[in-house]
């Protein structure tokens, strides 16, 4: 139905320019174009599908970069944002507040893990991570412990691309042109079931990774550590890797023992992606600070959120007067209206429940269909985020040589056949091989999952045969 209505919207015809040719920009002026020389020009979207100006249809199997939570062309959400824009699109967030901002804050805090009762809104995941770490730094300085400057991060991990957020990311090869970094980071291995080396990841994972974290702390001196940052489910850097049972309880106990603050980066795994609104909830993680992004506005406006504890904010109020951080678009109503419209849409249409139900189906179908294929080493994930690692040899888990660019080749092939997925490679950092990342809009149906899995399986088989 969604497809039929998309065709109606555009009259089923490719968009054309004045000369009657389909619109294309092969030599445009856009600075950053990653994969293709000749990018398709998207004319519109509908549900889980995108359409280009040549009339081709794409199943958006990764919701962009796991962003388009409520699907494309969502008129209910767009209409709500439009209404707010007609009222007021921008106010200075250090002078004013608005109804949409206040409502979004109170609704999110009501859903959030215990104690997170204060929210700020910014424009991107990287900004929220930066603000979160600045919040924690300021807190330690105000507490009279300015030496607590180091942050423990996990390898692999990704927390953003601005320089502070990049500093905190456990992806060494992303940093190679940009040193020196802004923050001292200390690293500990991130749980990744396929390459943990453990015979029984579920049984021994929590102990194993907790021991490694404890060793890192002892080596560095716990009194020099400000925070521990982690994605509850690791996103792009480890292909949707969930923690082993009990992991976050152990992490929390260890950090608590040394007064280290915990920061949950739910930019990718939050907002219903795992089948719960907050991924931390799934793993009994009650962080001191939490950040959201991407799905929070479904791509209808740039938006991210920082959630903190009242008592921490109060310490700052009594000390310096408050958190010393502001940006032009802080709580801009054009952005928070998108967040509120998406949240309302979630509630009205049971989006998180859909993600939980269809997510289980996706996880099951991916395992059933892909795992028997040659070269598919592992499938992991939870809810509507999943990762597939391709390997040259399944018995030894030997990755393909990086120079063969296996996942890039596969993704271009899938793209040509109208399935858009995301990839990642950890070869340079030695953490994993070729990873395909799956994360469709949270409104996806079982039938659309069937189409996704079938296209992916066919693509892998055809591509690998040629390889
Ligand atoms: N943290 C995580 C876990 C992410 O996945 C991302 C984006 N991929 C970011 C932070 C950065 O968000 P943004 O690209 O919106 O700055």
Automatic annotation (TrEMBL):
<dbReference type="InterPro" id="IPR005814">
    <property type="entry name" value="Aminotrans_3"/>
</dbReference>
<keyword id="KW-0808">Transferase</keyword>
<dbReference type="InterPro" id="IPR015424">
    <property type="entry name" value="PyrdxlP-dep_Trfase"/>
</dbReference>
<dbReference type="InterPro" id="IPR015422">
    <property type="entry name" value="PyrdxlP-dep_Trfase_small"/>
</dbReference>
<comment type="similarity">
    <text>Belongs to the class-III pyridoxal-phosphate-dependent aminotransferase family.</text>
</comment>
<protein>
    <submittedName>
        <fullName>Aminotransferase, class III</fullName>
    </submittedName>
</protein>
<dbReference type="InterPro" id="IPR015421">
    <property type="entry name" value="PyrdxlP-dep_Trfase_major"/>
</dbReference>
<dbReference type="GO" id="GO:0030170">
    <property type="term" value="F:pyridoxal phosphate binding"/>
</dbReference>
<keyword id="KW-0663">Pyridoxal phosphate</keyword>
<dbReference type="GO" id="GO:0008483">
    <property type="term" value="F:transaminase activity"/>
</dbReference>
<dbReference type="Pfam" id="PF00202">
    <property type="entry name" value="Aminotran_3"/>
</dbReference>
<keyword id="KW-0032">Aminotransferase</keyword>
């Amino acid at each position: 139905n969604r497809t039929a209505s998309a065709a109606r919207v555009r009259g089923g015809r490719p968009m054309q320019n004045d000369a009657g040719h389909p619109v294309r920009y092969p030599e445009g002026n856009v600075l950053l174009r990653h994969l293709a020389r000749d990018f398709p020009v998207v004319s519109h979207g509908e549900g889980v599908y995108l359409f280009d100006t040549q009339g081709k249809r794409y199943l958006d199997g990764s919701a962009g970069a796991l962003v388009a939570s409520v699907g494309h062309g969502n008129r209910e959400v767009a209409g709500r944002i439009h209404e707010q824009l007609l009222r007021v699109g921008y106010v200075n967030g250090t002078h004013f507040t608005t109804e949409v901002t206040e409502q979004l804050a109170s609704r999110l805090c009501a859903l959030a893990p215990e104690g997170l009762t204060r929210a700020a809104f910014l424009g991107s995941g990287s900004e929220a991570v930066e603000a979160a770490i600045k919040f924690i730094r300021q807190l330690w300085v105000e507490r009279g412990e300015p030496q607590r400057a180091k942050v423990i991060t996990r390898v692999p991990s990704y927390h953003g691309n601005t320089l502070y957020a990049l500093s905190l990311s456990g992806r060494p090869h992303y940093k190679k042109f940009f040193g020196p970094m802004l923050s001292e980071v200390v690293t500990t291995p991130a749980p990744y079931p396929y390459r943990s080396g453990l015979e029984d990841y579920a049984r021994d994972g929590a102990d194993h990774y907790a021991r490694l974290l404890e060793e890192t702390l002892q080596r560095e001196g716990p009194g020099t550590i400000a925070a521990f940052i982690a994605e509850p489910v690791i996103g792009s850097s480890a292909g949707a890797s969930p923690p082993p049972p009990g992991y976050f309880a152990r992490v929390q106990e260890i950090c608590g023992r040394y007064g280290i603050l915990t920061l949950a980066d739910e930019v990718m795994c939050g907002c219903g992606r795992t089948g719960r609104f907050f991924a931390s909830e799934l793993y009994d993680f009650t962080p001191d600070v939490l950040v959201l992004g991407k799905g929070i506005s479904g791509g209808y406006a740039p938006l991210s959120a920082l959630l903190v504890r009242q008592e921490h904010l109060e310490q700052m109020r009594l000390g310096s007067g408050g958190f010393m951080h502001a940006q032009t678009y802080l709580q801009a109503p054009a952005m928070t209206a998108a967040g509120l419209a998406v949240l309302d849409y979630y509630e009205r249409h049971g989006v998180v429940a859909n993600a939980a139900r269809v997510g289980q189906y996706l996880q099951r179908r991916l395992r059933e269909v892909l795992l028997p294929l040659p070269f598919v080493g592992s499938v992991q994930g939870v809810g509507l985020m999943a990762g597939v690692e391709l390997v040259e040899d399944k018995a030894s888990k030997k990755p393909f040589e990086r120079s063969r660019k296996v996942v890039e080749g596969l993704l271009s092939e899938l793209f040509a056949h109208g399935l858009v997925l995301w990839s990642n490679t950890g070869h340079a950092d030695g953490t994993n091989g070729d990873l395909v990342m799956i994360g469709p809009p949270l409104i996806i149906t079982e039938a659309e999952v069937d189409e996704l899995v079938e296209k992916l399986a066919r693509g892998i088989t055809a591509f690998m045969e040629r390889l």
